[in-house]
Automatic annotation (TrEMBL):
GO terms for biological process: cytoplasmic translation. One of its GO terms (cellular component) is cytosolic small ribosomal subunit. GO terms for molecular function: structural constituent of ribosome; zinc ion binding. NCBIfam families: PRK05766.1. This is 30S ribosomal protein S14. The keyword Transport does not apply. Transmembrane segments: none annotated. Coiled coil: none annotated. Keywords: Ribonucleoprotein, Ribosomal protein.
């Protein structure tokens, strides 16, 4: 898959697009809010 939806805007949340409190942990590149949702989906229940 070579879908480049975000182009050079890779420093923003890949879910909602904001660049506030971007978390690059685990190479998720999501903001703090979205990270919570992603974390839950991935099984990081300690963030819930
Ligand atoms: Zn977000």
């Amino acid at each position: 898959m070579t879908t480049r939806k975000y182009g050079h805007a890779s420093k923003s949340c890949k879910i909602c697009g904001t660049h506030d409190r971007l978390i690059r942990k685990y190479r998720l590149y999501v903001c703090g809010r979205c990270f919570r949702e992603v974390a839950v989906k991935m099984g990081f229940k300690k963030y819930s």
